[in-house]
Amino acid sequence: MSFKDLPAEARPREKLLARGAGALGDAELLALLLRTGLAGKNVLQLAQELLDTFGGIAGLLQTGVDDLRQVKGLGGPAKRAELTAVLELARRAMAERLRERAVFDSPAAVSHYLQLHIASRPHEVFAALFLDAQHRLIAMEELFRGTLSQTSVYPREVVVRALHHHAAAVILAHNHPSGGVEPSRADEALTQTLKAALALVDVRVLDHIVVARGQTLSMAERGLL
Domain end: 91, 116, 144, which one? Predict the structure, then answer.
């Protein structure tokens, strides 16, 4: 059955207009963005395949343009651009939320924000969330790339960026591309080094969060800060 052959009440667009977006499943919402399927595969089937490939909506939100290019049916630039734009809107919406309230009023939002930004990176990324005196997000910056035990994370550069943003506090973060969020000895040592360096300019380190696909670990909650 092709998409156009579905009963009107089962088509995502008509269903949304009649019953609201909450009545649609993940595949139906994604199908509205994709609009068309492939030969022998309607748009709902393509949408479900995408969700299965990337591990649901959360996984899809972590994908980049290169990931999408590998999916048959998303080879054209128009669909990739539209889907990438929606993913970027989701990231910006999360950032806006963190700018409006103290980050620890919504710790889940911080985890989701970091998941959207760095969980799916194929290489290790070290980032910092710079916060104001009310612990609201000013900016996030990816400062260094490479395995932390092999690529130096220069405390001076982190301090310079904190001063640039007039930050009162920071949350450090890095990802583990291989999976797992258990902090290494190098992670712990780096945290203490940066904490000491930032304290010299009266900037507090509130946390260091380790991120992998679908999971995060707070070093502050582990008592490692």
Answer: 91
The letter for the amino acid at 160 is V
Distance of alpha carbon 108 from alpha carbon 128, whole angstroms = 17
CA dist 78 → 40, 53, 162 (Å): 21, 20, 38
DSSP 1-32: --GGGS-GGGSHHHHHHHH-GGGS-HHHHHHH
How far apart, in whole angstroms, are the C-alpha atoms of residue 170 and residue 158? 10
Boundary-marking domain end, from 91, 123, 149: 91
Shared domain for 115 and 169, answered yes or no, is: yes
State how far the Cα of 121 lies from the Cα of 196, in Å rounded to an integer: 28
Q: Which DSSP helix (H) or strand (E) runs through 100? A: helix 77-100
Distance of alpha carbon 94 from alpha carbon 114, whole angstroms: 10
Side-by-side strand order, sheet with 137-145: 137-145, 125-131, 169-175, 204-212, 215-218
Domain that holds residue 44: 3-91
Q: Please indicate, yes or no, whether residues 73 and 168 belong to a single structural domain of this protein.
A: no
pTM beyond 0.85, yes or no: no
pLDDT tens by residue, 90-116 = 778 777 777 777 776 667 778 888 887
Determine contact, residues 208/195, Cβ cutoff 8 Å. no
120-132 pLDDT tens trace: 777 888 999 999 9
As a dihedral over the C-alpha atoms of residue 3, residue 15, residue 28, residue 111, rounded to 10 degrees, the angle is: 170
